[in-house]
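#lab-general

N.A. 3:47 PM
ok so I finally got the sequence cleaned up, no stray characters, all 252 residues accounted for. can someone with queue access submit it? mine expired

B.Y. 3:52 PM
send it over

N.A. 3:53 PM
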Amino acid sequence: MQTAITLEHNGMTLRGMEHIPGTACSQKVPAAILFHGFTGTKLEPHRLFLKISRKLEQHGIASFRFDFLGSGESDGDFEQMTVSKEIAEAHAIVDLVKNDPRIDTSNIYLLGLSMGGLVASVVAGERPADVKKLILLAPAGNMYELIMQMIQQEDIDVTTPYYDHGGNLVGREFLEDLKTINVFERAKPYHGPVLLIHGTGDDVVPYHVSNVYRQRCYGDQATVHFIEGANHTFDRHDWETEVIETIRRFVV
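B.Y. 4:20 PM
back already:
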């Protein structure tokens, strides 16, 4: 069953969706929490997150997917968004799921796409006992480097309060915050199973970043699954199908 839900955080409302399998009426069920990427939403392109949630529900796994503050339908403005704020919101979402009486709290999985993968990796590293498995789709562990490249390519004046990124105003605080976050060091304390999925045609986050995660953080506990030719958000039906099926095999 798919239902709209809300979460209050720092006086503002995050809006999301929960997918709860029918088996939750008679027993507690595992749950996946999905974190969207930079400028993304709880749906993500070609409804990827919805399709993942529906597939998980078919296999008895609940899922929760929220718009971060300033994104999608949640409160706030995008120009107030920072990675540290999204990490704090992600922790609040994990707390919500842990306190849900329908959920088997020994089986909570985190899944993040792009910058959502950065967020998921840090949250798992900060509360490893609460995360059974971790799934990172094209994770932007090198987000600071990517933003700096964009600033140089587009000749953006970073001394101004905001700059325009495709209609989204990005605040200077976002960059200042991002440079303080050592993603790989904060992700390293997580020692559970990790699945990294990345397209070899990704021109946003180079696919070698998934190998960096494995080398610097996870070692043999990580499986890296490359999808030949796939772009950053797996924008082809066969790529999308491979993503969903690979996730299913990892969690079921």
